[in-house]
Amino acid sequence: MDELYCSGCGAKIQTLDRHAPGFMTEKVLTEADQKKLLCQRCFRIRNYSDVISVSVSNDDYLNVINQISKENALIVKIVDIFDFSGSFVPAIKRITGNRDVILVCNKMDLLPKNVKYDKILGWVKSMLANEGFSVLDSILISAKFGNYFDELMELIYKHKGNRNVYLVGSTNVGKSKIINQILRRYFGREADVVTVSSAPGTTIGMVGFPLKDGTMIFDTPGVINKHQYTHYLTRPSYKLTVPKKEIKPLVFQLNEGQTLFFGGLARLDIISGETGDRINVVTYFANTVNVHRTKTERADELYDTKLYTLLTPPFNEDEKVPKWIFHDFKIRDNLKYDIVFSGLGFVTLRGPFYIKAYAPFVVGVYIRQAII
Ligand SMILES: Nc1nc2c(ncn2[C@@H]2O[C@H](COP(=O)(O)OP(=O)(O)OP(=O)(O)O)[C@@H](O)[C@H]2O)c(=O)[nH]1
Ligand SMILES: [Mg+2]
């Protein structure tokens, strides 16, 4: 068989192993238009929102991506603004090297609407400075609503010269959705061209499209973000932990000795607040995560008895929540900070404070200057 590729996910087409990427039955393959082949997995995602997990290792992803390092390309690095550090994945430095990079923060629509664009952009720039990562330009967009796409295309054409353009980033940041928006808005394609899904690891190989000047723009597979909770939850629970719509922040006034649970996924204990006063805590989680307040002395018992019923998601006893660990954060100044539960959400509070943040050991928990 000639080398054929799925037009939805870029996987090499094969007819032998239905659990490996790019599978099609012989019958469907012989009847299909060879220029628009869609593997069985892409077909199912599109028609039944049914994601079949295929086994592709992180190394396989990196091998595909390493092809880019052979070329002097313009890199468009995509991050999820809701999970900036979690989706920043340092491994991407291996790909970007010294190449020219434009940073695109996607999913702006998840942040509350009253948040100012310039304020977030300023925050992004300070995060980049902290990471020691230099870029030609940064921009915030929403691939869901197509916000700031004219500005994005302007930046791409301004910096690309005669080079190809590669969208890279961790899984699930929206690379494929961005490609579909570009094809729809500027190339008259109506239906989605590449496959988008809420499960990480959707795109398997490179999928390229010609730009107006004859160079190419490529969708690429995502680098796996090991801190993603997905591996431990069933799909229905996972869907309810990942925010899809604008997040409605919740405000709590907490005393020392009080605890917040974020479903059964994470927990925050207030050890002490500003000189014993109440402390304002604003939570930013998917609206479907049940945030519950309790006394810290009752928290362990509540978790043991109410996980899957009051503390949801998760909903299902089959979901083995990995062992929790806690992280201490002690702040003495009076600035605003976020405590981030990577991929799940974050809480904002002003110092001074001493808190404990609990999450399964697989989830990155860290403190940063407040985004909002
Ligand atoms: N709210 C919101 N969701 C988005 C946006 N862009 C993408 N998504 C959602 O994020 C999920 C992942 O999108 P994809 O485009 O498949 O992400 P990807 O980066 O291509 O992921 P991989 O192919 O796994 O590397 C899907 O559920 C999308 O609908 C956005 O701007 N806003
Ligand atoms: Mg993709």
What's a quick, concise take on this entry?
The chain is an alpha+beta fold.
Kindly report how far apart the N and C termini lie. Answer: 54 Å
- Portion of residues within helices: 10-25%
Ligands (ions, cofactors included)? guanosine-5'-triphosphate, magnesium ion
CATH topology of the largest domain: Rossmann fold
What is the tally of helical segments? 9
CATH architecture of the largest domain: 3-Layer(aba) Sandwich
Task: Provide structural commentary.
The chain has 372 residues and is of the alpha+beta class. The chain folds into 3 domains: 1-55, no CATH class; 58-225, P-loop containing nucleotide triphosphate hydrolases (Rossmann fold); 239-369, no CATH class. 23% of the residues lie in helices and 25% in strands. The protein is built from 9 helices and 16 strands. The strands form 3 sheets. The chain has a 6-stranded mixed sheet with strand order 3-2-1-4-6-5, with helices on both faces. A hairpin with a 3-residue loop joins β13 (336-341) and β14 (345-350). The longest helix has 15 residues, at 117-131. The chain starts with 25 loop residues before the first helix and ends with a strand. The structure holds guanosine-5'-triphosphate and magnesium ion. Magnesium ion binds at residues 175-176, 202-203, 219. Guanosine-5'-triphosphate binds next to α7.
